Amino acid sequence: MSDFSCVVTEGGGEAALRTSVESVLGQSLRAGEAVVVLAAQGDPASRATARALAGGAAGRVRVIVAGPEARSTAALRNAGLDAATGRYVLVLGTGEQLQRHACRNLWEAGERTRADLVAGRWSRVTAEGGKEQEPPWQEQLYARSRTVGRWTEAPELAVRDALVTGFCLRREAVERHGLRYAEDLGHSEILFGPVAAAAVGRIALVRRLIVSGRTVPDRGRDIAALAEAHRRAADALVAQGLHGLRSERERAFARDHLVPLVRTFPRLPAAERASAAEAAARALGGPVPPDLPPLERVAVHLLARGDADGLLAAAYALSRPGTVTAPLAASEDGRVHWEIPGADGQEPTRVDVSELGHQYREFGEIRLMNRLTRCTGDAGRLLLEGHLVLPSHTGPDPARPLTARLEFRVRGGTRAFTLPVDELRRGPTGIAWRTRADLTRVLRPVGRRDTVWDARMTVEAGGTRSVSDLFAPWDLTEGGAGGDGPLRFRARPRLGPLAGETWQPYVTVKDHLALRLLAHRRPARVTRRLVHYATHFRPARRARLLRRALRTRLERYRSRGFKAPVYNTWLCRLPMRRGSVVFESHMGKCYGDSPRAVYEEIRRQGLRLRPVWSYENSPTGFPGDARLVRRWSWRYLWALARAEYWVDNQGFPQHLRKPARTTYLQTWHGSAYKRMGFDETRVRMQNAPQRHRLQEAVHRFDHFLVRSEHDVRTLAHAYRLPEERLLRTGYPRNDVLFAERARDEAEGRLPRGPLAEALGLPDHRRTVLYAPTFRGGPGKYRKRRLPLDIARFAERFGDAYTLLVRAHYLEEAKLPACPPGTVLDVSHHHDVGELLTLADVLITDYSSIMFDFALLDRPIVLFAPDLDTYTATRGGYFDLKKKAPGPVAGTEEELFAALAELKEADTEFGPARAAFAAEFGGYDRGDAARQVVGTVFARHTVRHQEAGR
Predict the structure, then answer these.
(1) Which of 770, 767, 774 is CA-nearest to residue 844?
(2) How many CB atoms lie within 10 A of CB 364?
(3) Where are the alpha helices (DSSP H) in 592-676?
(4) Which end of the chain, N or C, is more open, meaning fewer C-beta atoms within 10 Å of its C-beta?
(5) How far apart (Å, rounded) are the C-alpha atoms in residues 420 and 709?
């Protein structure tokens, strides 16, 4: 008896069969066999391939010919289960491949845990480019290897199609529970996995990739079989009393199968779109899951109705969520709905899509779908007809004349040709238009590097313009109704007919109309071949490789890997320029924080210093009276090498050595709740060279600012800073907070300052600043979804509060559309201190901003839904709940309740907030900038005083 039996069934051709069997023979676990099951009346080529494989690997490949009654894939698989002799049995689908150590990983997990079912990850071939991709939900399911006593401890196994492949069963369990594939069911693997998981006992989950090459089903053709398999799997959950999991499976089926089907509609011919919509209408029954996102809910509703035309609009909307693709209806309460016509005289279905925020945008601001409905030839001209969708709540001013023009713009360039649209007709759901374009006369390309032109249309009324691409299904340009092949029009390039002589309209991969210049006649084809040969034969290839090598070498000279050694070896030998100070805040991303406060204090005192500010991307917002250098530029390295002082709050590049004569003032960027430096688990897990590099970077600090003894116990200890380098002055950035608090006590909060006016903050609305902490790691700076549902907050408190959202400077947050004046993104404002003075309330989680805001003695609410997880992974220096300066909310409901009762919470947490400010800001007294300048720049201060006398 072998350890492993891998069942491979006929189907998909001889190449697929050979691929699967060879992946079994290539396993590192040698005690395994491939059981190849052939149909009695199968493909002769597949049978010959199977025999050849069996002959080449005697004893490791067995060929089984099923009986004539086995007519389905499920029946063939059952025959393979009956013929298997291994301790474990695994079934491979068409063309699927085992990873080299797949059987060994599954076998070892099964033997170690005594599990009856062992499952791992699998990947599938995507339709776009044939790339391998794992389903995104696998990341959480297989985050770590684990064993569960019952499958209900890992419900994703039944909620998702996790067990369609990539798992094995103990053969004894298969026989004991009588596990069989349903032979009357297409895609029976969808049902077999959950049934097997429910029948067996212990299940082991392996985080390794087991199977690759799974084929994505043809959902348009197989929708009925997929829906039936899903329905029976859901019924199996109900039979076990798991009604909640059934609803989750309904939602997962919609997102994993139905919505992807809708996304393919623009690429399908009209007949296939109609057929798929009709099949879906017959197969789908029951209610649409209510907790789907709005556009996905619309798509499933339209599938259930079989509305092929509406599905096309839904497909465009799914790929462009910010574009209005259907005539939305606005209700009196301000909600916006997508109306789906009823079938057989039924009432239309209204799906609320207010969450998309279209109702908050006006004509000219909102993106509208301009759908091309006709594209054909007319007496040598290109005839285009289309419909610009308009929602009911906005549109061009009906009292103003309406004009439109069609534009063809060269892709990747600025050249464009425009022509007026001949006919425009306003209608109840949008604007219908029609025009004829004489491409031969109007469009005159050079013929080289301008062979593709994108079309778009501009509609204008009363000075308000709306620009839109022309969206179309892929088959619209195939000769129109006549179907005589692709449309073609004569072209007249400026380089002459040898550059090309034919314009061909086509639909791009992004579903919009474009034109391409082609060469169909013999002279143009020959010319293009000659040009291609001239640019691709051996000397040309060598020249191109030489240019590429030179470009690579030049890029290397501009790279950090080249600049750092040059700086450390040569530039650091340059003489110091007395009085030169290089300032940097948050790695050059902003002009703010304590470096800004120190710089402005130096300017206020009139010290004769030479300031240099570094910036990361743009110098906008940085001081005009200082020299500005781009971070990592040669000018930046030159300034660092010759500077007498370095001042920053984050850390100049670790790879750069500080000259011995330079004084480095590290102001730091906040007190710590989360563990930092060598106290952080991630750093302790690094290798010795990485830890040494960090220590060397920290040893460059000559002065390190602290604002309390908490900083001494945490930050100074975490970075191994000696006592003599600590300056107990507080943070210069917080001086403005003391000044603001004094103004509040003397004059009151109103009127607000010029920044409030610039942001459009009215005095009658309270301002809430939401500033979550950084949740990524090194090299993981990207857009993230905020823990707080911004749209829900705006809907709940938009009448009373304006929410200022400040993402961490290393991250970006994409905000939803909200009512005007309710939410503002202030992530790119340079100085957070100015935002703190505006805020009436602070919402944060673990950010050091809470230590600063407490100095204002204003309400703080901590929204920490992942407090336990975050503390367990990152670690904390104290119990946040015990020392919190305000309510700690674990859910949005708790957060909203705290904001609704803010006055009571403010009174209740007043003493705790005062104690919090005293403990973590004991050295902040409002004069930190003056103390720092007097200490670090003492020599220049004395000289200035002597010059004054």
Answers:
(1) 770
(2) 17
(3) 593-605, 634-642
(4) C
(5) 72
Give the span between the Cα atoms of 173 and 642, in whole angstroms.
Answer: 75
DSSP secondary structure string for all residues of 232-294: HHHHHHHHTT-HHHHHHHHHHHIIIIIHHHHHTGGGS-HHHHHHHHHHHHHH--SPPPTTS-H
**What is d(CA 481, CA 520) in angstroms, rounded to the nearest whole number?**
23
Nearest to 824 by CA among 765, 888, 866, 775: 765
Helices 790-797, 892-900: inter-axial angle, 10-degree rounding: 30
* Residue 766: both structure tokens together: 């309270």
Give the separation between CA 693 and CA 687, rounded to whole angstroms: 10
Whole-number Å distance between alpha carbons of 131 and 123 = 10
Got the DSSP string for 412-444?
TS--EEEEE-SEEEE-SSEEEEEEEE-HHHH--
- The pTM score is 0.80
Give the pair of three-digit tokens for residue 350.
Answer: 């209204």
Strand partners, 825: 805
| 876 phi/psi in degrees, rounded to 5 | -135, 155
- Considering Cα of 697, then 701, then 706, then 711, what sign does the dihedral take? positive
Contact 825, 846 (CB under 8 A): no
Q: What is the mean pLDDT of each run of 10 residues along the chain (949 residues)?
A: 89 90 93 92 88 89 89 92 94 93 95 95 78 88 90 88 93 94 92 92 94 88 91 89 88 93 91 92 86 93 92 93 89 87 79 88 91 92 94 86 94 91 92 94 86 94 91 80 68 88 92 91 82 78 86 88 94 95 95 96 94 95 95 96 96 94 96 93 88 93 97 96 96 95 87 87 90 66 74 89 86 80 90 93 93 96 89 88 94 94 91 95 95 92 60
Q: What angle do CA 586, 590, 592 make, to 5 degrees?
A: 85
Quote the radius of gyration of the chain (alpha carbons, Å). Answer: 34
**Cα-Cα-Cα-Cα dihedral sign, residues 364, 366, 367, 370:** negative
